Amino acid sequence: MRLYLASTSPARLATLRAAGIEPVVVPSGVDEEAVVRDAEGQSGPLGAADMVLLLAQAKAEAALAQLVTGGGHCDGLVLGGDSAFLLDGVIHGKPHTAERATQRWQDQRGRTGELFSGHWLIDARSHEQPRALGATTVARVTFADDITDSEIAAYVATGEPLHVAGAFTIDARGAAFIQRVEGDPSTVIGVSIPTVRQLAGRLGISWPELWSTAESNSLD
């Protein structure tokens, strides 16, 4: 069973590979800010859980549309994902700039926030009526309280925190500054492996069917 990953996140790809799955990467090209803006214009402000699920769905559907453009077809599952970090009721996505990443780390050291990851899985094997399911997971992340300003500066200088939700990782350099994770650790990485397994099962697909030893595939 082939899995198409509607994400360019190296961390999501590595996590799926570590779980025995070699997905075909299909960048979705979704304008995340526009999707959220349109949704909030219709129904009001979105909470973190609703926002990441909405974006996961948008990415999966956009990737599927790319796959079937021009009469093509999709012979497997399409997975979309999105993440956001909630601290003091404020939703934080990717900081993008060193200044913003530095400020976030100064604000969150010694504190606990919640990392939300949305998942949207489409079974596109049926050309007439693809089935889809979604789920949002959350994990509580506690940061060490003894992180120094010089450590923050050095971490931000690596560029790693600029392009990840909440400005931190648990699978790379950021792991040294995280004291505790309550919940599924892969949620913090951006794709909850137990949740994807459960969604696949609800679509009638056994998890081992997705295991692969094939070489990486990618659609630019």
Automatic annotation (TrEMBL):
<dbReference type="Pfam" id="PF02545">
    <property type="entry name" value="Maf"/>
</dbReference>
<keyword id="KW-0378">Hydrolase</keyword>
<protein>
    <submittedName>
        <fullName>Unannotated protein</fullName>
    </submittedName>
</protein>
<dbReference type="GO" id="GO:0047429">
    <property type="term" value="F:nucleoside triphosphate diphosphatase activity"/>
</dbReference>
<dbReference type="InterPro" id="IPR003697">
    <property type="entry name" value="Maf-like"/>
</dbReference>
<dbReference type="InterPro" id="IPR029001">
    <property type="entry name" value="ITPase-like_fam"/>
</dbReference>
